[in-house]
Design goal:
Elements lengths: L4 H12 L15 E3 L3 H9 L4 E6 L3 H17 L4 E6 L4 H5 L8 E10 L14 E7 L6 H10 L9
């Protein structure tokens, strides 16, 4: 039986369009990191890669967000890390962000060792300065790419 024009078009779209999200993709193992502690988060920042953090609560919109995060995490791996924080489990970390609408996304990047300001109580403590940008673009892998481009965030090893 010959495929209809529509079926051929959809098949072509699924195989060629990177941003078509209406069909499940085989993304392999999840690249989204689940927040467990602030210490682990700081260690991730210290690796020097930008970290996209989704602050979430349970809900239908969060299911869509999860799919987008999974797709983007695979696309930008290993140069951008994606992390999901379930705010009901870690309210202290989420409250410090001072937002009251969930879910929301922030991008942490450019960890640089901060210059010692005044005296440091513990000389073994290293301070890092991190830029935090609110993400307000289209919620898709394409939206993340445009955001990274706009803010000069390095997403590949190419210089």
């Amino acid at each position: 039986m010959e495929q209809s024009f529509f079926d051929r078009m959809i098949t072509h779209l699924r195989s060629s369009c990177k941003y078509y999200t209406g069909y499940p993709k085989d993304l392999g193992p999840s690249r989204v990191i689940h927040f467990k502690s602030e210490r682990e988060f700081v260690q991730l920042l210290q690796q020097g890669h930008p970290v996209v953090v989704a602050f979430t609560i349970r809900g239908n919109y969060t299911k869509h967000l999860d799919k987008v995060l999974e797709e983007a995490a695979v696309e930008f791996y290993p140069n951008v890390k994606f992390m999901r924080v379930e705010c009901p489990k870690y309210p202290g970390f989420c409250i410090t962000r001072q937002k009251n609408e969930y879910p929301f996304i922030e991008i942490f990047h450019s960890p640089e060792q901060a210059a010692d300001q005044g005296r440091v109580v513990d000389p073994s403590t290293t301070r890092y300065s991190v830029k935090v940008l609110p993400f307000n673009y289209n919620l898709s892998a394409y939206g993340f790419r445009e955001f990274f481009k706009r803010h000069g965030i390095q997403t590949s090893d190419r210089k």
